[in-house]
Write a structure and sequence with these properties.
about 400 residues, alpha/beta, Rossmann fold, 2 domains, 7-stranded parallel β-sheet, 6-stranded parallel β-sheet, 15 helices
């Protein structure tokens, strides 16, 4: 409970739908610790519903990685917006919480370090400096007071570079084991396949064509197969339809909006665009194949040189760090087509065994059980609030 001093002031900077959800969860818990907290945000509807005053809505058109370069003009405008806000009066800032999206968030960290040096900077979601562009660890050391990590191996990595970090768990695993309603999905037919084409518009645009191409072949090999597409929201649902032949989904393919966990519970296996959705599939014990379409020129000209890891999918990264059987010498728990340079044939080769063979699905689920164990007993809301408050109050 906060004492009689001035209200704490927090600024969130979130640019993705997933980040908006995580930040809102943190803010909700923070209000129990600091009842008079004043929260402001570059963010989305979840943060606003949790009580933050939005300086700007920033989550509708999220981009990742090098895609953020095309948003330079928008980023500069937003930095100016926050700079003007910081200079408006004598109000203090206790803590900046940059949420994921390091390509955008470094600018706000630098701004706050310069204009409000007394403020703490607590990252929610660790920038994946251990995976690519490792020189950024110097930026993180200079531009953070604590990192709230969603993956259990990250604090150890950051400790090696003198970056204060704490594992706070992941909300996805708090729902693990909870029975979800799948009665709205088809129960007849053969194998059940979930398609998760990504939460960002760019992901859908890049990957949906290849996913549809794989479906078009597999539907002939599995005539009774039923398919449900899990769209992140209405905007992505409409985008998926626009990128389908004739502007509509193929026959025997259904759409579910904002209900990915239930779709994964229903499915025998899934085809998932690499990202947080792969961790959601693990949390629901749904075997999967992952992919992410990349430009060959971009990958061979730049990506392969700045990306340190050769495993990109979160379940495989976790399995590797947990040293699960089968991960020796680069072995992977989940078939991973990242980067994927186009075409449906590699997807079909990876996915068909999961559609045909229960033993292949069981091998993945065995590995998922070990990953579940790494998250067990960690309450994200409580741990994240504790990590932030300790960073601010010392």
């Amino acid at each position: 409970m906060q004492g009689s001093g001035p209200a704490r002031r927090v600024l969130f900077t979130a640019f993705e739908t997933s980040g908006d959800v995580l930040a809102a969860r943190l803010l909700t818990g923070l209000r129990e610790r600091w009842p008079d907290v004043e929260a402001f945000a570059l963010g989305g509807p979840k943060l606003e519903a949790a009580g933050a005053t939005l300086l700007e809505e920033t989550t509708q058109h999220g981009k990742m990685g090098l895609g953020a370069v095309s948003e330079v003009r928008t980023l500069r405008r937003r930095v100016k917006l926050v700079r003007d806000w910081l200079e408006d009066g004598d109000k203090a800032l206790d803590v900046l919480v940059p949420v994921d999206s390091p390509a955008a968030n470094w600018s706000f960290c630098k701004l706050v370090r310069k204009r409000r040096p007394e403020a703490k900077i607590v990252h929610l979601v660790a920038p994946q400096v251990w995976a690519w562009a490792t020189w950024r660890i110097k930026w993180l050391r200079r531009l953070s007071d604590r990192v709230l990590c969603l993956l259990p191996f990250e604090p150890v990595v950051f400790a090696e570079h003198d970056v204060p970090a704490v594992f706070v768990g992941h909300p996805l695993f708090e729902q693990a084991g909870k029975t979800l309603d799948t009665s709205q999905f088809p129960s007849d037919g053969g194998p059940k396949l979930a398609l998760l084409p990504g939460s960002r518009s760019g992901e859908v645009t890049k990957n949906w064509k290849d996913m549809l191409g794989a479906f078009d072949v597999l539907r002939h090999r599995f005539p009774e197969m039923r398919v449900v597409v899990a769209a992140a929201d209405r905007t992505r649902a409409e985008l998926i339809k626009r990128h389908s032949p004739g502007g509509r989904l193929p026959r025997r393919v259904e759409m579910s909006v904002g209900n990915a966990s239930a779709v994964l519970d229903w499915a025998d296996c899934a085809l998932v665009v690499s990202g947080t959705a792969t961790l959601e599939a693990v949390s629901r014990d749904c075997p999967m194949v992952t992919l992410f379409r990349a430009s060959p020129a971009m990958w061979h000209g730049l990506g392969r040189w700045i990306i340190r890891t050769r495993t990109f999918t979160l379940p495989n990264l976790l399995a590797e760090h947990l040293e699960l059987p089968g991960t020796e010498d680069g072995g992977r728990v989940v078939p991973e087509l990242v980067p994927h340079f186009g075409g449906s044939e590699p997807i079909i080769r990876a996915l068909e065994p999961l559609l045909r063979d229960e033993a292949a699905r069981a091998r993945q689920r065995d590995a998922f059980a070990a990953i579940h164990g790494a998250f067990a007993g960690v309450d994200f809301g409580a741990a994240a609030v504790d990590g932030l408050v300790e960073a601010v109050e010392g």
